[in-house]
User: What shape does this take?
Amino acid sequence: MVWIPALAEVGLAAAAFGPFLMHRLSVGRWRKTPLLYPKSMQAESEHPLTVVLPVWNEALIIEKKLENLAAQDGKKPSLLIIDSASNDDTVKRIESWLKTNQGAFNDSTVIEMERRQGKTKALQMALESLEANTYEGLICMTDADAQLKSNALQRLQGWFANPTIGAVGASAQRSGGVQQEQVHRDMFELLREGESAHDSTPFLEGSLMMWRSSGFHSSQLNTGSNADDAQIATQVRLNGLRSIHDSETQFQDVAPTTHEGQRRQKIRRAQGLQRLLLRHRKHWRSSRIGDFSLILRREAHFHLTAPLLMLGVATAAVLRWGTVLVWGMPIGSLAVLHGSLAMCELFGLTAWALHRNGMRIPGLTTVGSILTGFEHLLAAMWTSFRGRSLHMWEQHADTRVLAAKQK
Assistant: This one.
């Protein structure tokens, strides 16, 4: 009887991890021929730039953010701030800073929402205001807690000298997080680089990204979901332009300092990505979008199918051990199979437990990060199944305090 759950466990594990291996090999191959940065800087002179800054209760850091934007190299951008009904003095600080620093931007506008409806809705309202004024140019979205390097906006603008580029995202340099955060980030950066080189990546970093106003319309945002950055990146590609990640454009911010904060952030992000992929499931095998359909299909497997397969692996393992308890230890080849699976399970459980509790051991970190990722994805699925949306969330107060103290 042991062989039935044992073979089920092996088969489900192969189905879960096989596409990961295939995509990792593909990414390694794609990265060998990266997309070259345009030599021409025409985009900077030809296209106006508007920076969209969504804020909510950012009094601790808003002035620091405005100073950072004003210190950017190149031509002065326009600034559009959308405030999600802050109940602190964020807006007062913004207005005071703009009054004191007149001329810091080409022009500036502050939109105040009557009530908080989530970042995606706030972004939609900001884009609607630009569309109502028939704005044609580049749009940069950045978060209040992201500190940009002085050449960040100028470098992102340079990409748009390539007429095929519709959206570009930057690379996060995070501080203050738990030790394992960098492993998680490095894996995602690797995937984004490879996908960008081959065609496009559906997931960009919303703390700093830029796109053509003609490549995306505000009505294409799903305001009942988060991951607005991924929504834009994916839709820009579906609209016919490329969405790419630029690892040389960087910004700094602070990651949640506690394991619970990290977990909450990742579950929220996972739910947004899952909703996005399900929303675009008709494109998983669409010939119209070329190789991007392969990337979408694999990302759908990683975020939707693989976690359920791993749940099946865990169920099969429990059944196998239950069979052993009832029928006794197997003999012969079945004993070898059972023992091998037991060692794999011990390895996986150890890696998961260590990573989940912030302990890092060489050889276990990557596996632990992947398994913890499955945990977050399953938690996001369960949250969605219960009918709970995470597109409105409480701010990570610890990150704002640390960001305010940094020079």
